[in-house]
Amino acid sequence: MARKVRITMYMTLDGFAALAAGPDDPEAEREFWEAMWNGPMDSVDTLLLGRRTYEGWAAFWPGLVDSENEHWRAFARFSNRAEKVVFSQTLRTTTWANSRIVRSPVADEILRLRTLPGKDIIVAGGVQLVQSVLGQELADELCLTVSPSTIGKGLPLFPMEPTLDHHDDVVPEGAPGRHDFRLLESRAFRSGALYLRYATVARAKPGP
Predict the structure, then answer these.
(1) Are 80 and 62 in contact (CB under 8 A)?
(2) C-alpha to C-alpha distance for 19 and 149, rounded to whole angstroms
(3) How many structural domains is the chain composed of?
(4) Best exposed site among 64, 103, 181, 193 by fewest CB in 10 Å?
(5) Which range marks the domain in which residue 102 is found?
């Protein structure tokens, strides 16, 4: 069976790629980690990362393998052993075990990884990498934790082209920029955040 590619990201209500943290709540934290990572940590062995995400994670997670926080400890150990594929034209060396740099096109590497034996693959950031994978229809699933907050600025998770032109309220299948998803799972957390897991749907071809 071919390896699945899953995008796992956070998003605010106004569409920015950020996690709006709430008050400390052990139960809410447990819900979050259970949905976002506990299952994938058993079924995934490869992480796809952009340069900035990789550098941030490499400076943070390796030092938490013995953390008192059980969720952080589990993720640190998982991310240490997973293969980490970093897409970058500027990064020269990696400092985190099991990491490698890829300079070839994203689509070429993902298609190659799909043919190899192994567990599933997660695209975990950054935004440009996620947008590239979505835009080229390279993912099987999109998993989002949506915070019940707007923040007014940041990096949009989905590409946006500002325009002053009037748009119809109804956007037909096959319209430029439209991508469709099929809901597989949803959970409401006590924090008010939503976990949404979607299957990607092949883009419809424009009508005549």
Answers:
(1) yes
(2) 9
(3) 1
(4) 103
(5) 5-159+180-201
- Residue 191 sits in a domain whose CATH number is 3.40.430.10
Helix, strand, coil shares of the chain as percentages rounded to 5? Answer: 30, 25, 45
Residue 68 counted as domain residue: yes
CA 1, 98, 82: angle at the middle one, nearest 5?
45
Q: Is residue 107 part of a domain?
A: yes
Do 1 and 116 touch, CB atoms closer than 8 A?
no
Would you say residue 199 has pLDDT above 60?
yes
Interval 81-116: pLDDT, tens: 999 999 999 999 999 999 999 999 999 999 999 999
Question: pLDDT digits over 28-78, tens only?
Answer: 888 888 888 887 899 999 999 999 999 999 999 999 999 999 999 999 999
Looking at the domain assignment, is residue 128 inside a domain? yes
More confident residue, 165 or 66: 66
77 in a structural domain: yes
